[in-house]
Design goal:
The protein has 4 helices and 5 strands. It is α/β, with parallel strands linked by helices and 118 residues long. It has one domain: STAS domain (Transcription Regulator spoIIAA). It has a 5-stranded mixed β-sheet with strand order 1-2-3-4-5. α3 links the parallel β4 and β5.
């Protein structure tokens, strides 16, 4: 059995939003790493956070719970919260449970940043 791995890299996009690039598998073993990274993001009115999943290979319900919690935190702070680069399977899961009606979903991080500017 292989161990789950996840990396989360934070950077500031040239247009201003904070960008979290998530790589690997998001499951009950690795969710604390994403939770910690999300908790470290300073959120304030007018701020924006884009979580880029273009290199995510797996996500279970624990990962979804982490994202919903982060969304509520961003909403309470008055910050924009967008998800980008979701694969076909994750997008389908979001649509099935109705989270595509909650989250701003974008094909790429650049598309998410562009949408924030409008």
């Amino acid at each position: 059995m292989t161990e789950s791995t996840l990396t989360v890299d934070q950077q500031i996009h040239e247009a201003g939003p904070i960008l979290l690039k998530v790589t690997g598998e998001l499951d009950h073993h690795t969710a604390p790493w994403l939770t910690e990274a999300l908790d470290d993001v300073p959120l304030a009115p007018g701020a924006a956070l884009v979580v880029d999943f273009s290199d995510l290979t797996y996500c279970d319900s624990t990962g979804i719970t982490v994202l919903v919690t982060a969304y509520h935190r961003a909403e309470a702070a008055g910050s924009a919260f967008s998800l980008a680069g979701l694969g076909r399977d994750l997008t389908r899961m979001f649509q099935t449970v109705g989270l595509d009606q909650v989250f701003a979903l974008h094909p790429t991080a650049d598309a998410a940043v562009a949408a924030l500017r409008h």
